[in-house]
Amino acid sequence: xxxxxxxxxxxxxxxxDGPGMxxxxxxxxxxxxxxxxxxxxxxxxxxxxxxxIDALINFIESKCCNxxxxxxxxxxxxxxxxxxxxxxxxxxxxxxxCVYTGWELEKVPEKILKLVDYIKTGSFIINLRNSxxxxxxxxxxxxxxxxxxxxxxxxxxx
Length: 158
Ligand code: SF4
Fold this sequence. Notes:
Elements: E1 4-14, E2 22-27, E3 49-52, H1 53-63, E4 68-72, H2 80-92, E5 96-100, H3 110-113, E6 118-121, E7 142-147, E8 150-154
Parallel strand pairs: 2-4, 4-5, 5-6
Antiparallel strand pairs: 1-2, 1-3, 6-7, 7-8
């Protein structure tokens, strides 16, 4: 079956979107309405670029030079089935995968957790904005390292 996923953008190199230098794929669409959303231009589903996942993998392989990728948004988990297919294919190819989601960890399905190396959770809350944290915009957000089913929270204080 030819799966597709709706994409919003690509950042080749970032030090701010998870541990190490990473490429970032932004997925289109987020039904939340966080005040101060830094990606408000990509919140509407249907306004992005629908890509076949195999073609997207080819694109990632041609652009991501160190095998470290972060899937951000938008809200990646709102494209759950397509996201799972994308992550499975990236995992088979040996990518180090980080997912940024506004969902809390308890809501993230096992089928996603088992495919990631890192996951950042929690919506952006403008009143809790904290510029001293790495990878997160507000202090309610968390980053977890996932290793063989073991989930460990990371300190984000720089
Ligand atoms: S979850 Fe993220 S993308 Fe969605 S509205 Fe909030 S800040 Fe914006």
